[in-house]
Structure formats: C-alpha cells, structure tokens
Amino acid sequence: MKELISCFAEMILNKYFSYKSKSGMNLFPEINGKKLMSLYPGKPVKQLVKEYYKDKISKIILATIFIIAIVIAVSISRLTSNTVTKENSLPRNDVGNGKYSVNLSASTDDYRYGEIEVKVEERLLSDAECDSMMDELYNHLTEIVPGENEGFNHIEKDMVFPAKVDNYPFSLRWESSDYLIVDSNGHINNEDINEEGVPIDIKVIMSYRKREKTYDIKAIIYPVTLSEDEKRISELKDALLSEDEKSKTKSQYKLPDFINGKPISWKETKQPVVPIVIILGVCLIIGIWFGTDKDLTSKYEERNRQMIIEYAEFVSKLQILLSSGSTIRKAMEKIAEDYKRNRQKGGEYKYVYEELLLCIRKLRDGVDEAGCYEFFGNRCGIVCYKKLTSLLIQNLRKGTEGILEAMDNEVRMAFEERKAVARRMGEEAQTKMIFPMMLMLSVVMLIIMIPAYLSFGGL
Fold first, then answer.
1. Is the pLDDT score of 313 beyond 70?
2. Is the overall model pTM greater than 0.90, yes or no?
3. Closest CA to 59 of 118, 99, 2, 97
4. Cβ(169)–Cβ(211) below 8 Å
5. Which one, 192, 290, 380, 454, has the greatest CB density within 10 A?
6. In 378-415, which positions are buried (b, 16+ CB within 10 angstroms) versus exposed (e)?
7. What is the pLDDT of residues 269-293, one digit of tens each?
8. Residue 16: its pLDDT value, please?
C-alpha cells in the first residue's frame, strides 16, 4: 500500500515537473530548497526537493484515503441503522437506563414537517413488576444494611441506610422506632445500652412514582464489645476523669497512682527531635553545597555584566589618552594609576580595572607588551575586550596609523552596546516586578471586595 502511494506521488511529481518545464510556473517555494540544502549538506538540491514533496504528497494521499474510508463507513452505518422500526415505533430503554432523544423528520404526501426532536422516556414498571422488584430489593437490603455488623440480631456499629441502590429505580426512606439510638442515617448511639441489648424497629419505605411500599426490619442494638487493650484504655480514661473531678479546685492535676490495684507510672511522651535535627542538618549541608555554587555563578554573571557596562567608559578613556599623543602602554598605565588612587580614597571596586592592574604588573615585570594585552583580553573573557586587545596588538605590529579612527568607531559601538544592555536590564526588572504587582493587586481587590460582599450579605 505504501509503495503504491509512493509510486502515485512520484507520478504526480513527474507530471508537475514536465508541466513546469513547458509553462515556467513554479508552485513550490524556492526557500524550501535552501532550508533542505542547509539541513542535508552535500546532497543535490533538486533531489532533496523532489524527495521532500514526494513524501508530502504521499501523506496527503494517505490522509485522503483515510477520510474517504471514514465517510463511506459513516454513510453505510447511517443507512443501515434506523431507530424507527417498520411499525413506526421507537424502542424504550429498560427501567433504570434513563431516557434518550432522537431527531426525526416527518412527511406526508402533501406536506413535509421537517426535523423534530423526540424524547423517549424509559419504560415504566407495571404494578406487578414494581412489587416483585421491591421484594427483590428488600432481600438485597438484608445483606447491605448490617454493614460491618454480624447481623440484625447483634448490632454494635453503624448500619448502612442507602437512599438509592444501583440497578433499582426506587427511592428509599428510613425510619427508626427510637431516633436517640438509631437515627435515619443509620448512626448508632449505644454508649448507655446495657449488655442485654435493646430491640429496635426499622422501617424502609420504597417509593416509585406514586407507588410506595413499607418493609419492617427488626434489629437488636448492643454496646460495643471492647478488646482487652480497649478495656484497659477505657479504665485508664475513667480513672483520669475521676481524678480530674477531685482536683478541679486545686492547683495541681493529680494523676492516678493505681489502676485496678496496681501502681502506675507516668512519663511525658516527647516528639523525636534528634532525627528531625539530623534531617534538617543534612538538608542544610546540601543547600549550602549547591547554594554556594549558585551564588558563585550569580557573582560571575554580575561581574561580566559590570564589565560590559564599564567597557564604554574604559575604551573612551583609552581613546582620549591616545588622541592626546600617549602611547598605548602609557595610556594603560595612566588609567591603572588613576583607578588605584581612586580606590585608595574609597572608590568603587571595578573588575576591568583590577584586570588592568594585573596586566600593568606583568608589563613592568618585563613581559612582552603584545602578550600582556592578549593576556588582558583573555582574562576579561568577554568578546568586546578581546576585540579591543586584538586591535591594540595589531597596531603594535603595524604601527599607530589608523588607531585613532579605529578607536573612535569602537567608542561609538561601545556606547550603543551600553544602551542595549541598559534596556535589557530594564526589561528584566519589569518582568521581575510583575509577580509582586499582581500580589499587591490581589490584596487590594480582597480589601475592597470582602467588605462589599459582607455588606451585601447583611453580615
């Protein structure tokens, strides 16, 4: 199938190319050829374009076949399936399956009624069916209602009183002969019941449309049977309550010294602190380990940002000194000395001038001047400084002709770059301010809306 579609697509392409050679019309954009040439270097562009459009046409043909198949299948399904029977009737859903709607069109010999929506209700139960199904549900309820209890003859825990049971179309309503013991939701209050138990009559009223039927259920409610551990805990709580009553007027809450004639000791239960401290300590160590790396990265990025901003000032100073007749070395030394004096007076620390001081130190130690400038550019590690040092080294080797013009251009470009960096920083600051501003707006909205809501509510 795939090969057949591929052959058909190739046939269409061949027809197109033969038509193109005659008419000169090109339906395929040339930009696609340039993109394909960039993605697959070394291959002929014509072959790439042909393979690309061959694959494209093959996919279109396959999609068209798929759509046609779906249309045919849906059409056949709609023709063969008809809700309306030959006797002009619509089937009803069985009891409990709900109603459905169908769109029908009606017509006579002389009039067309158009489309109309017909809602088909589910089938209703006859009286006999209703009674039979209610009896069936009652038998089913005898298994559901006891819940976690053994049976109706021994009820200790809450019972299950459903308002509706799946697969049955009846609404259930529950009544109790003593709501203080058993309420209409099946909750049991058996704290004050003796061990002999209390009989309770329960009624369940099943209703279906206007038909109702009542069933009686008899149950015996018993107090909760406690395990040995539960009995001991209950006795201890009773002893605590007794001591609390005795010492209510005293400044101390006296704990019982004996329980069932046996001495009892008390000790405060404290939360385990050591494991929590260890876990927090490990988290702190991990946080410090990775946080330090992140802090170092942030500082490095800030250093680079500062050096980019300072580049315009640095290259401007250098250009002024070179214009006044200084050599490159003397200009560098002058800038470094001025910064050093400014730092001694409490001036701002600047990374680029610190790197320059290191470069001047190497110059004075007798290192080759071109090597020092290259070292300075590599230490700065930023493109603009590397470009500047390359320009300085080039003029050292070829002479100072054209250096002033080149420096003028560099100063102009440096200030343009500084403006672009300032704009980017402003945009970043605006982005960072969005969340606090949204938070403040939410707080203001709450301050305005809550009093308005309370006043409208009459509170």
1. yes
2. no
3. 2
4. no
5. 380
6. ebbebebbeebbebbbebbeeeeeebeebbeebbeebe
7. 656 666 777 887 777 778 776 776 7
8. 65
